[in-house]
Specification:
The protein is an alpha+beta fold. The protein contains five helices and three strands; from the N terminus they run H-H-H-E-E-H-H-E. A hairpin with a 2-residue loop joins strand 1 (54-60) and strand 2 (63-68).
Length: 103
């Protein structure tokens, strides 16, 4: 068996978290998994007030798109775009998103 092949079976026992990360890496799904985790964590990142007024959250081409039902919350979020991106980077690491778009 080739040791450099990430799809080859390993004989040693691995913790579930490590095995899951290896699987994501082997199928090149790490970025998609982080994007989905970010969307699921949106209420935790921004808090209840903003989350309650959020109607849609998705990631496309490294941009986080957030649809809000409140004009003042949208303006506040845009004014604090850097802080929100910083919170996301602290939780998920740099490079997951490059921009925040509110509509």
């Amino acid at each position: 068996m080739n040791k450099n092949n990430p799809l080859s079976r390993k004989k040693e026992v691995a913790p579930l978290e490590s095995a899951f990360k290896d699987l994501l890496k082997a199928y090149r799904l790490e970025d998609k998994f982080q994007e989905k985790s970010l969307v699921q964590s949106w209420p935790e990142i921004v808090g209840k007030t903003i989350a309650d007024r959020t109607t849609s959250v998705f990631v496309k081409e490294k941009k986080l798109f957030v649809k809000l039902s409140s004009g003042p919350i949208k303006k506040e979020l845009l004014m604090n775009k850097g802080k929100v991106i910083s919170l996301i980077e602290n939780k998920f690491g740099k490079g997951i998103i490059d921009d925040l778009v509110c509509f």
